[in-house]
Write a structure and sequence with these properties.
By secondary structure, the protein is an alpha+beta fold. The protein contains 7 helices and 8 strands. Helix content is 48%, strand content 26%. It is rod-shaped.
Length: 252
């Protein structure tokens, strides 16, 4: 009986069965098998890249979308990959599809768009826990595309615009408040020292004089005007009112 010769590459391993029972994992290199007694299953140990087709996902806030991803994995235990699962490649792909829908359905749309890296890590952890018994190592999972409907895209654009308007109004109100607070502080300081107000008036006159203006409007303090008004009132009270005219009737 002639022996069967197999040659395995560096990245390949052979799972050898003798009379249907597992014997050992061989390779790489030169492998000799006994015909009709032994058989071998080749297993590729390289990292495989699989594109997960677009899945219909409904987020936690009831937004419909299509999400696709890319899966990176490799076989680390050829014995388990052959014995524990019938076909590890389609089994891993189907598991990735169902896990993708289940995990993303637990998160709102905002998290899917802003925390894509975290969701990918969650997917990888869940898949690793289930494929470990198959002898498969999940290297990475990348969520590639989150496709929304046109209506949802317009709604998100309106929401973003409203959020920008809200922030602009808040910033403007805070600026007005800070300006008002600064003016109050300045008025408090100037009112505490009367000479400071006079110096401020003189500084204002200097600034106006440096410009080419034909009309100058300068405010005058009420403290200066009040004595003049009081003097005019006292003089007006001292002058007696003129006598009333008397009507004279002529007698015929």
């Amino acid at each position: 009986m002639r022996a069967t010769v197999k040659i395995l590459r560096e990245y390949e391993r052979g799972v050898v069965f003798t009379l249907g029972r597992f014997q050992k994992v061989k390779g790489p290199g030169f492998i000799v098998l006994i015909p009709f007694v032994q058989e071998m299953v080749r297993v590729d140990l390289r990292i495989q890249v699989i594109e997960i087709p677009a899945q219909d996902v409904i987020s936690r806030d009831n937004v419909s979308m299509k999400v696709d991803a890319v899966l990176y994995f490799n076989v680390i235990d050829p014995e388990h990959a052959v014995i524990k699962v019938q076909q590890y490649l389609p089994a891993t792909v189907m598991l990735a599809q169902t896990t993708l829908r289940a995990v993303l359905g637990q998160h709102p749309l905002d998290e899917m768009l802003s925390e894509r890296k975290k969701l990918s890590q969650d997917l990888q952890g869940i898949l690793e826990g289930q494929t470990e018994v198959w002898g498969i190592k999940i290297s990475n999972v990348e969520i590639r595309t989150v496709e929304l409907t046109e209506n949802m895209i317009r709604a998100i654009a309106k929401q973003a615009e409203a959020e920008r308007d809200r922030r602009a109004k808040i910033i403007h109100a805070e600026a007005e408040f800070q300006a008002a607070q600064t003016l109050v502080d300045a008025a408090t300081i100037l009112s505490s020292v009367p000479a400071a107000m006079q110096l401020r008036y003189l500084q204002t006159l200097t600034e106006i004089g440096a410009e080419q203006n034909s009309t100058v409007i300068f405010p005058m303090p009420l403290d200066i005007i009040k004595p003049l008004l009081a003097l005019l009132d006292s003089k007006a009270a001292a002058v007696p009112p003129p006598p009333l005219p008397v009507a004279v009737h002529a007698v015929a």
